[in-house]
C-alpha cells in the first residue's frame, strides 16, 4: 500500500566534505522515515488483523443472522401451531360449552322427570294405601260374612239336629202310644215300605250323581217318575190283602170297615195316615240330609272351581250362572204348571181301584179318602221340599255369585296393585337410568375439561418456548449488533489511523522530496570539486 523507501547508494567521496548545515535534519528525517516505516508495517499488520477479525465478525454475524432467520422461521411455525392450537382450544371450549349446556339440559330434564316420577310414585303409593285399606275393609267384611255364614250354618245344623231329635222323640212317643195301631197297619204298609226303600235306593243313586246331573233333577221325566213312585206308594193295590190273598190277615181291619156309620174305626185311619206321614217325614228327613250333604259337597267343589278360575273365565261363569238362573226359572214355571194340573189326575187312581175286580178286598171310602189325603199331603210335602230346595239352591247360587264378585273385585284390586307396583319399579328404573346418563355426561364433560387443560398446558409451554426463542434471537441480534458496532468502531479507528499515517507519509515524502531536491541542487558543486 505504501511505497517503500529505498536508500540511495552511498557517494564515494574522496575527502570528507564539510558537514552541511541540513545533514542533521536529513538524518533525523531518515530516522523519522524509518520509524514511520516500522509504524506503517505495524499498522499494516494491525489492519490485516483487524480485517481478519472483521471477516470473522462478519462470518459470525452471518451465522447469527442465519440463526435468527431459523429462529424466526421456528417462531413463525410455533406461531402457526399456536394459532392452530388456539383454534382447537376455541373449538374444544365451544364443544365443551355445548356439551355442558346439553348435560345441564339433560340433567334438568332428568331432574324434572325424577320429580314427576316421584310425584307419580307418591300418588301411586297413596292409591295403593287406599286400595289396601279398602281391601282390608272388604276382607274384614268378607270374614264377617263368612263368620256369619258359619254361625248360620251351625245354627241351621243345630236346628236340624234339634228338629230331628224332637221328631225322633215325637215318633218314639207316638210309636209307644200307638204300637197296636202300628202292628195292625204294619202288614198293610210293608208294600209301601218296600216301595219307599226302593225309592230311597233310587234317591241315593240319583243323589250320588247330583253333581253331574243337576239339571236332570228338574226334568219332566224325573217328576213323572217321582209322581209314579208316590202314586205307587199311596195306591191301594200295594196292600198285603192283594198280594197275599190266601193268608187272610184281613179279619182285623174288616171290623174296622164294617161299622162305618157308627165310626169306631175312624180313629184308626187317621192314625195310619199319621203313621204313614211320620214314616214319610222320617224318610224325607233322611233324604233331605243326604241332599244337603251332597249339596254342601257340590257347593265346596263349585267354590274351589270358582277359586281356581282365571280372569278369562269370568264371562263364561256369568253366562253359566245366567243360564242356570233361566233353567231354574223355567223349572219353577213347569213345576207350578204341573202342581196346578196335578189335582185331576190324582183322583183317577182313587176311582179306578174301586172299579177293579179286587174291590171287595180294598178298604172302604174312609180308607180311600185317607189315601187321597195322604197322596195330597205327600204331593204338597214334595212341592214344599222342592221349593225349599230351590230356595236353598237360589240362596247358595246368590252366595256363590257374591263370593265370585268379591273374588273378581279382589283380583281387580290385586291387578291394580301389581300395575302400580310395576309402574313404581319402572319409575325407579327410569330414575336410575337418568342418573346413570347424567353421570356419564358429567364424566364425559370432565374428560373434555381434562383434555382442554392438557391442551392449555401444551399451549402455554409452546408460548413459553416461543418467548424463550424470541429472547434468544433478540439476544443474538443484540450481540451481533454490538459486535458489528465494535468492529465498525475499530475499523473506523483503524481507518483514521491509516489516514493519519498516510498524511504523515505524504508529509514525509514531501519533506524527503524537498531534501532530495535540495540535495540535488547542491550536488554539482560537490561533484565538480570531486
TrEMBL record:
Keywords: Coiled coil. Residues 33-67, 128-158, 186-213, 382-472 form a coiled coil. Residues 1-20, 237-281, 326-368 are annotated as: Disordered. Residues 342-363 have a biased composition (Low complexity). Residues 270-281 have a biased composition (Polar residues). Signal peptide: none annotated. The keyword Coiled coil applies. It comes from the Eukaryota. The keyword Coiled coil applies. Residues 330-341 have a biased composition (Basic and acidic residues). Residues 248-264 have a biased composition (Pro residues). This is Uncharacterized protein. The lineage of its organism: Eukaryota, Viridiplantae, Chlorophyta, core chlorophytes, Chlorophyceae.
